[in-house]
Amino acid sequence: MKKFIYTLVISILFFSCQKSTPALTPARQLAGTWTTPNPITFYYSSDGCGSYNRYSSFTMKVNWQITTLGDNSVNITETLVSASTQTSIGSNCGLPAPTLTFPMQFVAVITGSKFALDEQQMQYSSTGAALGLANVRIGIFNYTSNNITGYVNEVDCPAYCSGYSTDSNTFILTKVN
Asked: In this structure, what CATH number is given to the domain that contains residue 72?
């Protein structure tokens, strides 16, 4: 019994003196430049004809520049590399498509190996009056040290609702540096 207690005390002292190396935080693993290796299919949607439906498709290649904000959040600046022309897949009853302007700014809130993509959008009342800016969740992504995979579904509703989206797990980026 004495030998067991002695071994236990020595073990506790030995392990408590070990230096711990700080683990990499998710934000540091994501920081850097990411690119879409292949064009991603995006869809414009609106409720201009009564129900919210997709009415055109197009492809884009983009780059993301990710910078660390904290241990569980990053800033993402999206820039356009290339885009195709739109292909009609339905009707929007003559209403205009939303304008995508670059660069786009997002914030990602990290939980484990996933992050939620948030965009700052103007919020509107039921009568269409502007209420102010708020962060709105527009996507969910999984990531590894070299790949990011997920989707976006951005909807803005001033007079009528319109937005853009991708299918699940089709928005794929790979790390450049």
From this structure: 2.40.128
Q: Which residue has the higher pLDDT, 90 or 125?
A: 90
Q: Could you report the per-residue pLDDT of 143-176, keeping only the tens digit for each?
A: 998 999 999 999 988 777 889 999 999 999 999 9
Nearest to 144 by CA among 177, 114, 106: 114
List the domain range (segments joined by +) for residue 167.
Answer: 24-175
Between CA 146 and CA 64 the distance in angstroms is 13
Strand partners, 41: 59
Task: Let me know if residue 138 belongs to a domain.
Answer: yes
pTM for the model stands at 0.80
pLDDT score recorded for residue 160? 79
Evaluate whether residue 118 is within a structural domain: yes
Measured CA to CA, the distance from residue 44 to residue 116 in angstroms comes to 21
In a domain, 14, yes or no: no
Question: Could you give the 3-state DSSP secondary structure of residue 5?
Answer: helix
Going by C-alpha positions, the residue among 123, 128, 126 that lies closest to residue 159 is 128
